[in-house]
Specification:
6 helices, alpha+beta, two-stranded antiparallel sheet, elongated, five-stranded mixed beta sheet, single chain
């Protein structure tokens, strides 16, 4: 062995051996460990993202509730009008706009992106009370658009929120007893929230993307055998709601109907996810009934 073939290390105590690379098995083990760690972290990151979106939704709902209450304070306890213009054919009630205007569907109709319908005091009585901010009318989790709407360059529709049909005066479908509901009652003033009280009466909710049309969501004040319209469930089977005392919360739906309609189908058939049958024992129908104003 030639001396020149051996090189001493820096401290002169031994020899430097040739460097060896990782084997294929070692690389595969490292990759597998990284994959396992990623699989463990992704659900955590997903939950964190869901919580952030839910927090943004709650902030928007809170602002909307405060605007609704401010309007009432400025109008001698009278609640903002909640008029079903698709039923009445009139965009105003007693000469005044509803809390918000316009309709929502899956077509390329420009009303789906017209912010003036939720911010201008010509169409929306709450517009001036929200500083003309359109974003609070659409939940950040409700970023659903159809192919025709994607072609228009939209990434969401202008509104995902609807108001309880039993809150606010206005023309209602089939009134005075919509859908044959014998106990139908409408809270027209803040002082009308007796049963349940303001903290338990829901006012605003996100509506299911396939169900939303006008600015109203109809619910009975007692258990019935169908969902007239479906509330939203875009927060992982949960929904953002606002109550008459101005608090907002994310409510988890527990029944089979709401959980069966988690996917969006972008149907071109109007009302395909309305009048959805359910047993009168459905826990979600019962919850909605218990939180809808009654006389």
């Amino acid at each position: 062995m030639k001396i020149k073939d051996l090189q001493r290390n820096n401290n002169g105590l031994g020899f430097v051996f040739p460097k060896r690379a990782f084997t294929l098995i070692e690389l595969l083990v490292v990759i597998a460990i990284i994959a396992i760690l990623a699989a463990m972290l992704l659900p955590v990151l997903s939950r964190a993202k869901q919580k952030a979106v839910a927090a943004a939704c709650m902030s928007d709902k809170k602002q909307l509730a405060v605007a609704w209450q401010m309007f009432t304070g400025d109008n001698n306890d009278l609640l903002p009008y909640n008029n079903d213009f698709l039923f009445s054919g009139q965009v105003t009630f007693n000469g005044q706009p509803s809390w918000a205007g316009g309709k929502i569907d899956w077509t390329a109709g420009l009303y789906n992106a017209n912010e003036a319908l939720v911010t201008s005091d010509t169409y929306a009585s709450l517009g001036p009370y929200v500083a003309n901010s359109a974003k609070i009318f659409a939940c950040p989790a409700a970023n659903f658009v159809s192919q025709p709407q994607q072609a228009m360059g939209w990434n969401h529709r202008v509104r995902s929120v609807a108001m309880d049909a039993a809150v606010g005066d206005g023309a209602k479908y089939n009134s005075p007893m919509p859908f044959g509901w014998t106990q139908w009652f409408v809270a027209k003033r803040m002082s009308d929230f007796h049963s349940p009280g303001p903290s338990d009466s829901w006012v605003f909710t996100d509506e299911h993307p396939d169900s939303i049309d006008d600015t109203i969501l109809y619910t009975a004040s007692y258990p019935v055998s169908s969902f007239t319209e479906l509330p939203g469930n875009q927060h992982g089977g949960r929904c953002g709601l606002t109550f008459a005392d101005c608090h907002a919360e994310i409510h988890a739906w527990k029944g089979p109907v709401m959980n069966a309609h988690r996917n969006v189908i972008y149907s071109t058939v109007p009302g395909v996810t309305q009048q959805v049958a359910c047993p009168v024992t459905d826990v979600d129908v019962i919850w909605l009934a218990n939180h809808t104003p009654r006389n």
